[in-house]
Amino acid sequence: MGNICSISLPADRIVSSFWDGTTENANYLRKLPENLVELGTACERLRELRNDVKRMVGIAEREQMQPLDQVQGWLSRVETLETQVAQLIGDGTEEVEKKCLGGCCPRHCRARYKLGKRVARKLKEVDILMSQRPSDVVAERLPSPRLGERPSGGTVGMNSRVGKVWSSLHEEQVGIIGLYGLGGVGKTTLLTQINNAFTKRTHDFDFVIWATVSKTVNLENIQDDIWKKIGFCDDKWKSKSRDEKATSIWRVLSEKRFVLLLDDLWERLDLSDVGVPYQNKKNKIVFTTRSEEVCAQMEADKKIKVECLTWTESWELFRMKLGEDTLDFHPEIPELAQAVAQECCGLPLVLTTMGRAMACKKTPEEWKYAIKVLQSSASKFPGMGDKVFPLLKYSYDCLPTEVSRSCFLYCSLYPEDFQISKFNLIGRWICEGFLDEFDDMEGAQNQGYNIVGTLIHACLLEECDVDYEVKLHDVIRDMALWIACETGKEQDKFLVKAGSKLTEAPEVARWMGPKRISLMNNQIEKLMESPICPNLSTLFLEDNSLKMITDSFFQFMPNLRVLDLSRNTMTELPQGISNLVSLQYLNLSATNIKELPIELKNLGKLKFLLLDSMPQLSSIPEQLISSLSMLQVIDMFDSGISERTVLKDGLLSDDNEALVQELESLKYLHDLGVTITSASAFKRLLSSDKLRSCITDLCLKNFNGSSSFNITSLSNVKRLCDMSISNCGSLEDLEIDWAWEGKQTTEFNYLNSRVSSHYSFHSLVWLRVERCSRLKDLTWLVFTPNLKTLTINDCDQMQEVIGTGKCGESAENGENLSPFVKLQVLELVDLPQLKSIFWKALPFIYLNTIYVDSCPLLKKLPLNANSAKGHRIVIFGQTEWWNELEWEDEATHNAFLPCFVPTEE
């Protein structure tokens, strides 16, 4: 018996346990309906409790508090239990309603028992969760968000730029700031410095948020960047829809002060889609973009252009990337290194790339080779063709149309730093067939100006000192040539050797393939070959030393549309020019050609004929002009051909109106530039309604025999843009007819009304007056509200630009008169009697250049401390003259002291 284990229990405990178990099991069956009702009621109380807790959590989250883990866990368990209970109540209700042998069927009793047991257990689970309900503390407050300093390498020239943006951030009326500029100029670096400045400077913003936008906008990525800074980027956040995320961001930021830094915008970003409240200008949004147009689309309160570095800054950055060891390795390297740095034209991206690439080059020969490569084919320089240019090309790719891209590439035909006339550029685009959106010339010109504006806003073109000229940044030009000559479908279509110091044209074999060739700004003297150019559409030969072109040179250019031979010394055109049957644009300006060949009659498609600044041109074959029936623009401004041209031996020569009649016969004439040498001819020209409506450029030259000329008559030449008055030695006065509309008065209120009326010269933007020895003033300029460039040269008796006496008895009467509102450039040369430009200081909102030479009596400029606010004027002059200038006050003197640039004396 020793191996037998006996257990002894009291009999009453055994019976009691058996009875309790039996009773409990019986209750599972008997109390099922009652328990189901009790479970539903308990679950409803739990649901109410859960809603209370969730509401407390929501309030806490909006106050930037994080829910406790135990609270999140409790809510999760309640939600799970609710699902289970709902299923269980549904099953139980169905079971209770079943009737089978009075409910005593063994099979159904077993199922009812199991269900009753599950209901009883869920009741206990509900009771447990009720007892575990969270306290009133459901979340904890996180530390204030730390301002994140972004990585930033060594920078140059950023302090002043950061200071400008920082001060703008504190302007009450400024809420949105756009930083724009060409690619690689340092916009992201500047934005990084602004972000980091918040970690070092005192401010009262709750959040400083950085988000990168990029070319392909992903709103949810931007929302995630923002939420990481202001919330908790957990699984719950990630599961939200974009609209839900926007709502969450809006709730938080609406109650806070914030700065949002958006890097790399390429198009308008709808801030409301992101969830950013932007109506309150106490909050600040700063973004970077390559496009000024994006600044407008984003409704920026302030636009700040990020400019290239100055030479001093450029050299400092280049040295930093190059390293002093390389710079000091050989005595020739510093000078060569400066030459390389200058090729970068102040663009930080290129300075950094080139500095790093040259850091290991320690012989002069390597540096000289690098300079040669940069000047001839920059894309072959390490890092340029594979890194820099593809990055810059994004701006080109984002241009809105193929036409705008073609127009941009066309600009690369001009040399480095060349100031391109908008009017001439657009004329070439028209003749190339780029601008065919409208049938009429005015519509095509407007389309052209719109494209120029698009390229400027994209920072692919830059405006010059005068806004009717543009230029390409050298690195952007190199990028354009890389696209046009080395990549994609444009490959091998451009041959550009502009400004390359060539003395001979490229070998004939290289002319075969290109569509556009530019050899301008060289020293080529002769063109003696006969190149075969089946594809050639554009040929720039301007500003060479051309003296001779063989007759056969143009023989194989059947598709040539644009030919520029201007600024050459040639005295005649080859007869072979008659082969250019597709030619639409011919520029012969500033050449020594004496006579136009009759062969030009063959150019039946010619639209533009430019003959300005050709003093030697004295004869044109009879009916040559009228035979060019498609002409729309003909310019004889400051040319030997004038209204005094007559028919002589079959040529238009002197003293007849034959030329006027031929011009009148041109059906499509739109723009006309002419030279007038007598009052009678002037009257005849203006008597023609057709020609008067076409005149855009007018040269009054050699007006002798009359001491006065009524300039008021020109007010009816509504489209007059450029005007020159020269060599009028007997002319003492340019009269103003003060009796317009019968009002004989010089009262200034009347004068002011005339300036703004249709009688004034609203279209005139450029004026040159020279060698008019008896002229004393140019008071009529008060009627030129849009004048941009004024040059006065060699007028011995000129005393005032605006004469006080002609405008009224005293200067005080003209207190509100303010001429030169749009003036950008003022040049005054060899005016020994000039004492005054205007009798009081002028605002000069747009003026950027004043050039004064040999004006010894001009002791005061019309400037005060408020003149030229917001931009810098450059004043060129002799040091002695500058030192003797009188100033309105010391503040004015101090304001313009840094503006002076001495000229060689």
Automatic annotation (TrEMBL):
Residues 160-326 form the NB-ARC domain. The keyword Phosphoprotein does not apply. Residues 413-480 form the Disease resistance protein winged helix domain. The keyword Secreted does not apply. Residues 755-861 form the Disease resistance protein At4g27190-like leucine-rich repeats domain. InterPro entries: Apaf_helical, At4g27190-like_LRR, Leu-rich_rpt, Leu-rich_rpt_typical-subtyp, LRR_dom_sf, NB-ARC, P-loop_NTPase, Plant_NBS-LRR. GO terms for molecular function: ADP binding; ATP binding. Keywords: ATP-binding, Leucine-rich repeat, Nucleotide-binding, Plant defense, Repeat. One of its GO terms (biological process) is defense response. Belongs to the disease resistance NB-LRR family. This is Disease resistance protein.
